[in-house]
Design goal:
This is Transposase. It comes from Herbinix hemicellulosilytica. Keywords: Coiled coil. It is a single chain. By secondary structure, this protein is mainly alpha-helical. The chain folds into 2 domains: about 140 residues, no CATH class; about 35 residues. It is built from 8 helices and 3 strands. A 3-stranded parallel β-sheet has the order 1-2-3, with helices on both faces. Strand 1, helix 1 and strand 2 form a beta-alpha-beta unit. The mean pLDDT is about 80.
Amino acid sequence: MIRLGTVFSGIGAIEHALDRLDLPHDIVFACDNGERKLKSKIEKVESAIEGMNDSEKNDYITQLYEKECGMNYVEQTYRANYIIKNDLFYQDVRFLDQEYKIQAVELCLEGDKSIAQVAKELGLAYNTLHRWVKEYKESNGTSFVGSGNIKPQNQEIIELRRRNQELEEELAILKKALGIFTRNQK
């Protein structure tokens, strides 16, 4: 069984070819990477989706695209021809996150295709996918914690930096107070 993940700007050419060749396949995700342009700034969208899980992000992005761009005819045509669960169709490649990365990595690790072949099929840079595979292997499958979340090994460092900043601010306040008190005593 071929597991297929596709980032496309068409309406399923790879899927159509697999159907014509009568090759069994399972669509693990699909993503529109076409000409639809959001009016919202990417930074604003990223801020809005921070802390959401992948399903919530996809719902938000889908609603945003419907509001700003209207009907997605590529998606409509794709769904008319291929069976895919709602939560496996993404509106914009820029907002793919943990689940997408894991599925892309699994296509490399479980299939008989090279990283270069999978990267080309998914429209990803080879170096990006290679880095994802390396991170996935090094973390025993716990990488890609999701947008707004922190890897467990980095959590302590972040907390220590935050505490250090608080202590530096307290020290600065104490130095100013000491300066004020010593001036008043003279």
